[in-house]
Design brief:
Largest sheet: 4 strands, antiparallel
Order of helices and strands: HHEHEHHEHEEE
Helix content: 25-40%
Number of helices: 6
Radius of gyration: 19 Å
Shape: globular
Strand content: 15-25%
Number of strands: 6
Strand order of the largest sheet: 3-4-5-6
Structural class: alpha+beta
Length: 186
């Protein structure tokens, strides 16, 4: 009830654009139904072409582990195998994962700041970091960086990130762009 006419029109336009993309399912499976196999089976049941998993640490491993890093490593290997083994089951997959406490304190977190980082690094095609240190938060900014990639060079962007009555993202500045073709490696 706080939107003005222009914002309502923008909302309706965004709803139409989103609807044109086709069905979008959001699910929160109960414990016991959060294994890679269960998540991907459900995605296949609804005909998904992409899967977004918000919070890797909530996915359950098929077998019990004492160390979380081993559990996450198994989950990543199960996920990579499941989405790329059979052509009819290939699906794009994006997984969100938190940086550990040491990474939050670091000026620039690295792969070592992801739980299960060795398994994550070996299986993921590209790893992004989206973070908002205190000094950027004060300026409604955030950093988006490629932490690791198999097929490109690292890049980073300074984003406008406004969180209020609505969320807005935008690229303020390209901080580090991929090298142009033919440019020498340093």
């Amino acid at each position: 009830s706080t939107l003005d006419r222009e914002e309502i029109d923008a909302l309706h336009l965004a709803q139409e654009e989103f609807a044109a993309l086709g069905p979008f399912y959001v699910e929160k499976p109960p414990r016991g139904e959060r294994t890679v196999a269960a998540l991907l089976a459900r995605a296949m049941d609804v005909g998904a072409t992409a899967v977004y998993i918000d919070q890797l640490s909530f996915v359950e491993a098929g077998k019990g582990h004492r160390e979380q890093w081993r559990e996450l490593e198994d989950i990543m290997f199960d996920l990579k195998g499941s989405i790329s083994e059979h052509e009819d089951k290939m699906v794009a997959c994006i997984v969100a994962h938190q940086i550990n406490r040491e990474g939050k304190k670091a000026k620039k977190p690295g792969m070592e700041n992801l739980a299960g980082s060795s398994g994550t690094e070996r299986t993921a095609d590209i790893l992004y970091s989206l973070r908002q240190p205190d000094e950027l938060r004060a300026n409604s900014s955030a950093l988006l960086e490629i932490m690791g990639t198999r097929r490109s060079t690292p890049e980073s962007w300074l984003l406008q990130w406004e969180l209020g009555n609505r969320t807005q993202f935008g690229v303020r500045e390209v901080l580090h762009a991929a090298r142009k073709k033919g440019e020498a490696e340093r």
